[in-house]
Amino acid sequence: MKVSKRPKVKRSPWLLHYDGSSCNGCDIEVLASLTPVYDAERFGVENTGDPMQADIFLVTGGINSQNAGVVKQLYDQMPRPKVVVAVGVCACTGGVFKDCYNIQGGVNTVIPVDIYVPGCAARPEAIIDGIVQAVKLFEKRVKQKVEWDAIQSEETEYDKDISPLR
Ligand code: SF4
């Protein structure tokens, strides 16, 4: 697999990892990717356990009735902009468990997913590629947010100017 070109990192996006109903296969590969053997941190990401500090949300495993609320809550606690990566076919579609009575499907059944990393289990190279793409997308969204905030503040100034006429 061709790994995406290393992005230019202007700040270190923080990465939150949540293991849903996975068999732990993908979970172990995510941990291998983040630790020094594969060392995803060389691409500028920093692992965190705090959703309120996180920029990239990495989810393994399918969604069931027990973890759906947790995944949604973690996502909602993350500040904007944010990027979601589904790791492994279970997180992408429900995978081999998708017809089980308690599985409702992939991560996209509860939150919007930006990047899908295939594989059963997903290989560290593929996970790192997903992280690199997530960093690029995150940087793009930060830039868009800065521009949007600038437009909004200009509009607020404009509102102030015309407010006496209202
Ligand atoms: S994709 Fe495969 S290895 Fe990963 S959680 Fe599902 S069954 Fe396990």
The name CATH uses for the topology is Rossmann fold
CATH architecture: 3-Layer(aba) Sandwich
From N to C, what is the helix and strand string? EHEEEHEHEEH
Q: What is the radius of gyration computed over CA atoms, rounded to a whole number of angstroms? A: 18 Å
What is the total number of structural domains?
1
Poorly predicted runs:
none
Report the strand count. 7
- What overall geometry do the principal axes of the alpha carbons give? globular
What is the count of helical runs?
Answer: 4
How much helix, percentage-wise, in residues?
Answer: 25-40%
Identify the strand order in the major beta sheet.
2-1-3-5-7
Query: For the residues shown, what is the average pLDDT?
Result: 88
- State the separation between the terminal residues, measured CA to CA: 60 Å
- As a percent range, the share of strand residues is 15-25%
Characteristics:
binds iron/sulfur cluster, two-stranded antiparallel sheet, globular, 7 strands, alpha/beta, 166 residues, 4 helices, Rossmann fold, five-stranded parallel beta sheet
List the helices and strands and how they pair.
Elements: E1 14-19, H1 25-34, E2 46-48, E3 56-60, E4 63-64, H2 68-77, E5 83-87, H3 89-93, E6 103-105, E7 115-117, H4 124-162
Parallel strand pairs: 1-2, 1-3, 3-5, 5-7
Antiparallel strand pairs: 4-6
Helix pairs in contact: 1-4
Bound molecules: iron/sulfur cluster.
